[in-house]
């Protein structure tokens, strides 16, 4: 009798072990961050703004902004716009520009232009408008000297994002705005402006003061 009871107890215990713990539905996984996400945060990327068509018409709605983790791109080649008609994607060939409110009193304008490398039309961030324009783009690169991290068994390097800027004067080609060779490059770009050339020679305009250079040139030529 005792052996029969022990046998029954063993069978019952084996059944419980094989059944395993109660089944739970897993939280959805955010593939971009590799973390669990309970709520959909995609709505936070839709910012109030407007688009400007090739005909010059302005249409208000919401712009889907790029996330930090999207910064693997060199140029933005598509934008999603939402209004009463729904969501529409536009390429740089279909729009003049789009603008969104990054903060309540701060807007970001992305202009459709030919890429600095001449690879087609792209959206570039417009920093300054006028006779002298300054554009920028975001790139993501490996952080120098950073240690590598292992995520899901894969080795990943620490990444940082930075912006590259370009100057364009009166519809000319793009000139990179960079620290190395700043004076030499700007002397070539602004060779027809005695005021800017003098400021470069006197060190009034340095890489750290490139914004003053742009403002002064536009003030001189927008009269």
Give an overview in words.
With 223 residues, the protein is α+β, with helices and mostly antiparallel strands. Helices cover 21% and strands 39% of the residues. The chain has helices at 2-19, 182-189, 194-201, 210-221; strands at 29-30, 35-36, 46-53, 58-64, 79-83, 86-90, 95-103, 106-114, 121-128, 132-142, 148-151, 154-157, 159-169, 175-177. Strand 7 and strand 8 form a beta hairpin. The longest helix is centred in the first third of the chain and has 18 residues, at 2-19. The model is unreliable at 16-41 and 69-73 (pLDDT under 50).
Task: Record the SSE blueprint.
Layout: H1 2-19, E1 29-30, E2 35-36, E3 46-53, E4 58-64, E5 79-83, E6 86-90, E7 95-103, E8 106-114, E9 121-128, E10 132-142, E11 148-151, E12 154-157, E13 159-169, E14 175-177, H2 182-189, H3 194-201, H4 210-221
Antiparallel strand pairs: 1-2, 3-4, 3-7, 4-5, 5-6, 7-8, 8-9, 9-10, 10-13, 11-12, 13-14
**Gyration radius from CA atoms, angstroms:** 28 Å
Total beta strand runs: 14
- The unreliable regions are 16-41, 69-73
Helix content: 10-25%
- The first-to-last residue Cα distance is 109 Å
Q: Strands of the biggest beta sheet: in what spatial order?
A: 6-5-4-3-7-8-9-10-13-14
Largest sheet data: 10 strands, antiparallel
- Classify the secondary structure makeup into a structural class: alpha+beta
| Beta-strand residue fraction | 35-45%
Give helix and strand order, one letter per element, not per position: HEEEEEEEEEEEEEEHHH
> Counting H and I runs of at least 4 residues, what is the number of helices?
4
**Domains (count):** 2
* Rounded average pLDDT: 78
**Shape estimate:** globular
